[in-house]
Specification:
Length: about 280
Amino acid sequence: MSDMQAISQSPVVPVALTIAGSDSGGGAGIQADLKTFAFHGVHGTSALTCITAQSTMGVTRVDGLPVEAIAAQIDAVVQDMRVQAVKTGMLLNREIIAAVVERVESLHLKNLVVDPVMVSRTGAQLIDDEAVTLLRDVLVPLGAIVTPNRYEAQILSGLPINTLDDMRAAAQRIHKCGVSGVLVKGGGMAGDLRGVDVWFDGDCLETLKTVTVETRNTHGTGCTLSAAIAANLALGQDSLTAVKNAKNYVTEALQFALEIGQGPGPVCHFFPLFKGGRLS
């Protein structure tokens, strides 16, 4: 086969970009995003915002990258490839958020999924108050979809969230800031609401639920969900379909979550390889 024949037969593969931090343990962040993109048949590209030293036991160090380096990574990808979807994850500080906002606007990046990494599922704030304000007021309104957990949704909406009606009210309040679609995640909720999510896009207010998976190994679920949504958008799915399919993907990944390390392990991003309890 000639080189020209090989080129002509190369598949056209959608491209997604993740702008997020590195997880040295491989369960969340850039590593989880790229695995998720690959699972969906989407070519994954990345712009690292910070480097963490972490494992299943927790995070021991975080180093932010220079904003010039972050912008250069985004430029290098976008100037060469047709990026169909973008997701953001850990944006460590105000300067990094501002740099990402500037590139998103100037490069007209579309299908932006904002995972507003501000507060952990247990309620611990991860970025300072100035960064939270900028993320809420400037980055979130640029998004096609924002995916806050319970505590992040409380910050974005200014409402307490304890019930399903609270989740619905928060989703509608967050939508008013300008983002096209809001997915308030229920992973941090108690009782029957754990794992129940609420979607609102200005017209459709829908409660989304899949089977509950009992496992301690949930590391990377938020990153994986937002990456799967971005991958599905890159594949041409509409927003609600992208969200529903991403939620189903995470549920299956949780069913085969990995028991590795001494703490909570990560979800299994390539679960079909492990069905039946072994690598097939």
